[in-house]
Amino acid sequence: MKIVEREFGNYDGERVIEYTLTNDFGMSVSCLNYGCVITKIIVPDRNGHFENVVLGFDRFEDYLEWSPYFGAVIGRVAGRIKDARFELDGEEYLLAANDYPNHLHGGQKGFSSVIWKTEKIEQENVVGLKCFYRSLDGEEGYPGNLDTAVTYLLSNTNELSISYEARTDHKTLINLTNHSYFNLSGNLKRDCSEHILQLESDRFLELGLDLIPTGKMLESKNTPFDFNQGRFLLSGMKSSHPQIVLAGNGYDHPLLFKKSGENTIMLSDKESGRFLRVTTDQPCVVLYTSNQLEGPFSISGVRARNYLGVCLETQGLPDAIHHPGFPTVILHPEEVYYSKTKYRFFSNTIGV
Ligand code: G6D
């Protein structure tokens, strides 16, 4: 188990460092102190070939210019907040309308684009990085001084766990996630359309024209949103289902887990033989198939194109503050926000 670091860039006069965690079996996870961005996750395929399975850039400048939240921790609130405003105890708070007219992923300068303080963790069977950030009262329009810690831990069972913890001195909102784009083919050899996704979910949130939840929970049965038996992502992308078309001919939807407590998501790629098992304590996962990734830039030498990666953003329900029926995203001063999502990688002839 080891952790090494290297200069990756400079941001607002602060050093950007890339930390690489490596376990005893060769799996490695690289991440930045900028946005807790995961830049690489390198795991073996069925033949033991170690390749990168997430979208990330080789240069810091590309993150500033092009990144649609590649690998980043998203906060204070993941997803959209309608009209970039909310009310708490009769007080109205105005947020950055960075996805006009709505607020998206924590605003103009959310958790994904700030420098976090870091502490290395080196133990016999685990190596990791603990990241800290204090979001001051009024930052991006949110009330309360919010202290957040995000801990990445890599084990010798090829599992990356991400734990989130936060405390506030004033009632505020919080809904954290990680926005990694997975592509199990390895080094972006193919897109994610042939990936198979499986999870226990019978409902998903209907989105309106501006991708804001309408508040309606739609049945997944007999639709491209039914993943209970496993489904190729392509079957959704090609569907004429109105919600698929609305999201840009793909998925961009919160899928609600059937049961409360811990839930599991399986993502697999037949050709490489790679499997990813995600385990989370969150009530939903926003499935985003990078429907809008096309652009005049390259990702580790591969031209940006739609469907090159799939996001599994485990989180609270988007725009929950405007939907009393959704699990709350309000954090009180006497509470501690805590959440954990684990990502365990296997390959079908070399499982650990
Ligand atoms: C688009 O609607 C999607 C979001 O879900 C995603 O997080 C973002 O692109 C990167 O806005």
Automatic annotation (TrEMBL):
Q: Which InterPro entries match?
A: Ald1_epimerase_CS, Aldose_1-epimerase, Aldose_1/G6P_1-epimerase, Gal_mutarotase_sf_dom, Galactose_mutarotase-like, GH-type_carb-bd
Isomerase listed as a keyword: yes
Family matches, as CDD domains:
galactose_mutarotase_like (cd09019)
Q: Supply the alphabetized keyword list.
A: Carbohydrate metabolism, Isomerase
- Catalytic positions? H179, E313
Q: Which GO terms describe its molecular function?
A: aldose 1-epimerase activity; carbohydrate binding
CC annotations in GO: cytoplasm
Q: Which Enzyme Commission numbers does its entry carry?
A: 5.1.3.3
Q: Its catalytic activity?
A: alpha-D-glucose = beta-D-glucose
Question: Which annotated residues bind beta-D-galactose?
Answer: H179, S180, Y181, D252
Q: What metabolic or biological pathway is this protein involved in?
A: Carbohydrate metabolism; hexose metabolism
* Main enzyme class: isomerase
Q: Which GO terms describe its biological process?
A: galactose catabolic process via UDP-galactose, Leloir pathway; glucose metabolic process
- NCBIfam families linked to this entry: PRK11055.1
Question: What PANTHER family does the annotation carry?
Answer: ALDOSE-1-EPIMERASE, GALACTOSE MUTAROTASE
Q: What is this protein called?
A: Aldose 1-epimerase
